[in-house]
Amino acid sequence: MQIGSVILAAGMSKRMKSAVPKVIHPILGKPILAYSIETAQAISSLPPIVVIGHASELVMQNIHADVQYAFQKEQLGTAHAVTMAKEGLKGRVDQVVVISADMPLIRKETLEILIETQRNHDGPMSMVSMVDDDSRGFGRVIRNESEDALAIVEEKAATPQQLKIHEYNAGIYCFKSDWLWDALEAVKKSAVGEYYLTDLLQIAVQAHQSVKVINLPDPEEAIGINNRVHLAEVEKIMRRRINEAFMLDGVTMIDPERVYIEAGVEIGQDTVIYPETYIRGKSRIGKNCEIGPGTIIDDSIVGNDCRVLKSVMEEAELEDHVEMGPFCRLRTGAHLARHVHMGNFGEVKKSYLGEGTKMGHFSYIGDAQIGNNVNIGAGTITCNYDGQKKNKTVIGDGTFIGSDTMLVAPLTIGENAITGAGAVVTKDVGDGEKVVGVPAHAIKNKKEEGRT
Ligand code: UD1
Ligand code: CA
């Protein structure tokens, strides 16, 4: 059985009050439309057909998925929109699933049940309804005394009696492909001048063909986004779904409602995530870590047994057993090796800090290659920018950088060297050398002094 899918995304979405089309507003880092596309891909034999119209260039620029686009020049209604997919699907598939781009919570399991329902009966279409207190402006499902669905009436057109019906059209359909394209031709313009896809129900019923309506057990799935209140509501549900999956996989969350993790992130077992933590993009967190509270991790890697407290990481990497924070910032290319300790108010950019190196307080390290077991005293700064270009600082293993040292790059400091507090180091320092002052000059270090 060949399944085709159509995603309706051509509408104006005026109620978002936005300069950009609704379907590219992001939810947890992904455009709204990307969710429907993934769901449709999961059940389709061909790439889904996305019907676009309003701001179509912007939509296409923001979607990076294997889909086919169909253009609806004028938004003449949902039936007209589906007709735009005819060329791509007619004669190629047995069934056509239609969903809307503004309903990212629909699960693929629901579509599978719908497809199965359609497969197992003779009629030309199956659809999804749900029962809820809040109508959200949805069309009402009209049934006769024997409970057969007869028609869908849009809220705008409903009589007071019909408005009392609590069974709504979710806007999710599966059609027999052979039937669909001709039936669409039969749809007449509504009172508001649109061609309604929902009329297909009546068209089938009038031809004495059976229509199956399956009920959505979880009405949440059908929440559509029409304005930014709905956007926030859907985001919250999506976040809960993602967080629950992590928790069931062995990640602890202290107050999951206040944890923001994007799909695609990886987190190891027994890691604890504290509130107000954002983990986004292609981030990977190891096992046994403590992340947050108040931490933002974007496109970064965190090893096992790390602690990241109230800090920010962007395209950075921590190896195992790193402790960091509070109030640290790792920018692009920061790489902290095993057992690095980074205390409060530190910034590291495009630099490597070797195993066991300590950077306790108030330092900036940029464009540096730092060895193992280096002590970076409070207030140390790599003066990496000379006004024109960025210069590199290299520090060898075991070196002690005194508090408030200015490391004027380009600069190389050897192994087991010492800089005095407040030194402004402008010239390279050899292995074991001790330098002090402004500008720094070599003096005998204590051990040698003791010998004289
Ligand atoms: C539609 C249903 C309604 C159902 C609801 C569920 C119709 C007439 N009504 O109403 O019964 O309860 O969905 O969400 O179908 N679109 C186009 N081209 C158009 C018009 C719409 O691509 O010419 C797209 C929209 O961008 C949107 C989708 O189709 O993604 C649904 O259209 P919308 O206007 O939002 O219909 P609803 O009023 O929600
Ligand atoms: Ca809608």
Q: Helix tally? A: 10
Give the low-pLDDT segments: none
Task: Name the CATH homologous superfamily of the largest domain.
Answer: Spore Coat Polysaccharide Biosynthesis Protein SpsA, Chain A
Briefly note the structural class of the backbone: alpha/beta
What number of domains?
Answer: 2
So, CATH architecture of the largest domain? Alpha-Beta Complex
Bound molecules: uridine-diphosphate-N-acetylglucosamine, calcium ion
Helix content: 10-25%
End-to-end separation in angstroms reads 92 Å
Q: What is the molecular shape?
A: elongated
Identify the CATH class of the largest domain: Alpha Beta
Mean pLDDT: 96
CATH topology of the largest domain: Spore Coat Polysaccharide Biosynthesis Protein SpsA, Chain A
**What percentage of amino acids are in beta strands?**
25-35%
Using the CA coordinates, give the radius of gyration.
Answer: 31 Å
How many E-type strands?
Answer: 40
Largest sheet: 17 strands, mixed
